[in-house]
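Re: weekly structure request thread

Next one in the queue (426 aa):
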Amino acid sequence: MNKNLDMSEYFNELRKYNFWSGEAVRVGFRREFYPSKIDGYIGNSLIKVLVGQRRAGKSYLLRQIIEKLIISGVSPVNIFYFNKEMIEFEEIDDFQALHRLILDYRSIMQPSGRVFLFLDEIQLVDGWEKLVNSYSQDYTEEYEIFLTGSNSVMFSGELATLLSGRYVTFEVFPFSFAEYCHFRKEEISKLSLIKYLKTGGLPELLHLDDEEMRFHYTSSLRDTILLKDIVQRYNIKDAWLLENLFKFISLNIGNLFSVNAIVNYFNSHKIKTNHETILNYLAYLKQSYLVHEVERFNLKAKETLSGAKKFYLNDLAFRNYASVRFEFGLAQNLENFIFLCCRSSGYKVYVGNLKDKEIDFVLEKGTEKKYLQVAWMLTDESVIEREFGNLEKISDQYPKSVISMDDLSFGNRNGINHQVAWDFNL
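Done, posted below.
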């Protein structure tokens, strides 16, 4: 920490981003799904953590929570909002500097009673864990803490042990299909879903109607995540390989492949790499929320399988605008969409393995279990037999569904429900 920092200068900048003088809170598009989940945890000492990919809307959600608190009667003076991504706070780079800023806030604003700390992109502050742990255990003052971060390893290792049982995590995804339709004022329909599959759900992207602008925005965001959140953070030596690995996953979403298969693919294209490097790079892509890994699950043995896995993108924009034309692999886009629906609804997702048959998705949440097959169109009897037939071979009585883009639902076959994708629900 630079002890010569003039904290009064930073406090003046802090005023600009807080609401202490009664300024209106800019909340953007109201996303009811996440605030409604978080509401039940407000008013207690649990640390609320919003995690997810950059530009998925976490900062707007924090401001929506702030607005609700103010409307409910909390004084704006009792709310401290700090966003590390603002360039004005570039030198607030460690927990000691942030602590001094909070102390200045308390001294100058004199909040009475519970103080709400909203710390945005906190992982960019070195040693932030010490600050959060200290404030969460401060019995001389009453704090309620809200954090956002763009890295899934924020609460791992020592910190998870320190804060065991004292925090709750909410994973924030880009706009869902329903939110997209609400934002664009479109009816939920087959046509609007095709548009969504082509556009993706990145909030800022929905303000851009020009295809070239969408391409540049998505490419810029991808590069920022790859370079800033991965290359710089982990001292990656081969950024070009990392970019090509991400492109490989984008081209192969929903396909089973192992780390060795990826290594062989790159080596066959004269790109030298090894098992350890690819394994590490995959971990970094997952930690930055760009991609999601799905393991295979043996339905007979009731255990996960090692080896080949599937990968899905956190948003289809990275495939459509930064990797491949939309027309390439429509069924892959649809499968990725269904996966995101399941994950954002809180389900653990696996690829089902039953002898020589594959079940696209096995979903688990507590005691719930569901099975899903995804097809672009049920074009003929052989396709219908494959999609329904795989599910019919599962002997238990948990719900089973086939999802497709056919114009009408086929109803129910042998207890298996058919859903059109734009009306898909869990």
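The chain has a mean pLDDT of 93. Residues 7-171 form a domain with the Rossmann fold fold (CATH 3.40.50.300).
Next request, please.
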